[in-house]
Amino acid sequence: MTASDTGPALRLSVVVPSYDAGPQVRRLLRCLALCQLDAGDSLEVIVVDDGSTDGTGELLADLELPYPLTYVFLPRTAASGRAAARNAGIGKATGDVVVLADADQIVAPGFVAAHARYHRLRGDLVVAGPRGDLGPGRIDDERLAREFSLEALPAVVGWDGRDRVLAAFSQNFNNLATSWHYAFSCNLSVRREHLLAVGGFDEGFLGWGLEDSELGYRLHRRGLAFAFHPGALAYQRKREVTPEMFGQWRRNLDHFVDKHGGVAEVAVQQVICRAFDPADRSLDWLDCMIRMEFAVRALAGRLPEPSAYELVEVDDATASATLARLPELAAERDLVVIDDTAGAVLAGPVQCVTTPRELLYFHRPSAAARQGILARHRLA
C-alpha cells in the first residue's frame, strides 16, 4: 500500500471519440475490460461515434463487457471534430473522474487504476500518462482480447516526448511552467466537475492539434495542479506530422492565441513550428520545448534559477516522515527531492504540492545521473 492507493472510491468514465475506427475502438474496449480497478472503484465507458461510415455501432453491439458501455452516434457535419465529440461524451459521463483516450489506443491493465490513485491524492488535479509509439507490424487482437502482452504489439519505437521534457527538468510535472501544454487528450484525466466548470473543449478547434492544450491552459488558470503517472500506460501507432496536419495545427494555434488575447505565455508556443513544419524543422522538438519552458518561466519571474537548493533524500524507512513534512518544507525553500523508495512513494505527493518555490523530483536516478543532478543544482 502506498500513498497513492488510499482514499475514497471513485467512479471513472472513460470517454473515447471515434471516427471510422470500429476495429480499433473494439480492441480498446476489450483492453479496458482487462483493466484492474482498486476496491470500490467502478468504470463506465462512453464511445462517441463522430459520424462513422464503417459500421462501428454494429462492431460494438455484440461485445460482452464487464462495465456499462454507452454508444453515442453524432451525424457528421462541418463542425464535427474531436473537441465536439469529447464534449458529447463528457455530457453523458456520470463518473467523478473523466479519463480521455483515443479510439486507436491499447491500454495496459493498470491504466485506469493509475489515474484513479492520483485523483485520490488531490481533488483538483489533471493527470497525464505516457503514450508509447508503436512501429509497423501486426497487432494480435485475439491475444489482446484474452490478456495484455507486449508480445502482441509491434515494437515500441519511442514515446510521446514528455519523458524527454521531464528528463531535461525534473520528474515533477507540476513544476513545469508549461505543464498545461502537455495535457494530451490521448491519455488524460480530470474530475468531471472541473471539465464542466471550464466549459469542456473549445469546439472552435477543428482538425488536428491544440484543443487539448487549450483545455489544459484553462484548467491551469482555474488553479488545478498537473501530475504525470508513468504507470498509466497506453500505446498507439506512431504518427508523422503531415503538411495538412501542420496547416490545421497552425490555424488552431492562431485560434488559441486570439482566444486568450495574445497573452505571451500562450503565443510562445509558436516556437514549436520549427519542429512541426515539414518544410522547415530547423529545431528538434525537445529544443523547442526547452525554449518554450524557459520563456514562460522568464515571464513568470522564475529565472534565473535559485542559487541554492536543499537536498531531501528519501528511502522506504524515511518516506512517511518526509511525506508529513513535505508541504512545509516546499513552502519554505527550493528543494531537490531524490526518492530511493521502491514504489516511487513520493512521486504523486510531490506533484500535488502547490508552492511558489522550485520543487524538483527524481526517482532512483543512476549513480551518474545523481552526480549530474547534484552538480547542476550545486549540491555536490
Write a concise synopsis of the structure shown.
With 380 residues, this protein is an alpha/beta fold. It has helices at residues 22-33, 56-61, 82-92, 111-119, 141-146, 162-168, 192-197, 211-221, 243-259, 264-267, 273-276, 285-299, 319-332, 347-351, 367-376, and strands spanning 11-18, 42-49, 69-73, 97-101, 106-107, 125-128, 131-134, 156-159, 187-191, 225-228, 234-237, 310-314, 335-339, 359-363. Helix 14 links the parallel strand 13 (335-339) and strand 14.
Give a description of the structure.
The protein has 380 residues and is an alpha/beta fold. The protein has 3 domains: 11-239, Spore Coat Polysaccharide Biosynthesis Protein SpsA, Chain A, CATH 3.90.550.10; 240-303, no CATH class; 310-376. It is built from 15 helices and 14 strands. The strands form 3 sheets. It has a 7-stranded mixed β-sheet, with helices on both faces. The protein is globular. The two termini are 34 Å apart. The model has no long low-confidence stretch (mean pLDDT 96).
Strand content: 15-25%
Q: For this structure, what is the CATH class of the largest domain? A: Alpha Beta
How are strands sequenced across the largest beta sheet? Answer: 3-2-1-4-9-6-10
Mean pLDDT: 96
CATH architecture classification name of the largest domain: Alpha-Beta Complex
Q: Between the first and last Cα atoms, what is the distance in angstroms?
A: 34 Å
Uncertain runs: none
Beta-strand segment tally: 14
What overall geometry do the principal axes of the alpha carbons give?
globular
- The percent of residues in helical segments reads 25-40%
How many domains comprise the coordinates?
3
CATH topology of the largest domain: Spore Coat Polysaccharide Biosynthesis Protein SpsA, Chain A
Give the SSE order as H and E letters: EHEHEHEEHEEHEHEHHEEHHHHEHEHEH
